[in-house]
Input
Amino acid sequence: MNHSAPRPRRPAPPAGWRRRAARLPVRLFRIGLGPLFGGRLLLLVHTGRLTGAARTAVLEVVEHTASPCSWTVASGYGPEAQWYRNLGHTPRATVQSGRGFHAVTARFLPAEDGGRIMARYAEARPRTAARLCAYLGLGADGTPEGYREAGRLIPFVRLECDPACHRPRGRGRASGG
Output
């Protein structure tokens, strides 16, 4: 990694009407319209590190695997994003994807993994990757190596399903006394 490269200038989180607009997907998930996002977004329900209260954030899914079930997300606002800091304190959370809810544990990925993830993301979604890098002040030049370098500067988190979340269910109610 080039340690002489300038750190990204992270944009300030939205405030005022922009914050309300950015929080609109939370309301859509809550009223059951999560499938509208086609798996591109998820609702993260996590625990506030200071209050212990439930907090929510809608995040873009960078990668998803069905087996084992996991979602990879990026912190565009860097390691100071509240959801990111909260997961660092309490890594257990819940993800709503579409209409499904999943118990997950957060795993913070090393910079090298972030570089590979960003290069794959840029290959799959080149325009979105270019806009993201420009918004974050990362000088990705459109090459795979440029996106790898940018991805090393973006904190990535893998939200891994609790194995019990996808355990096969029995056909009927267990008989008991």
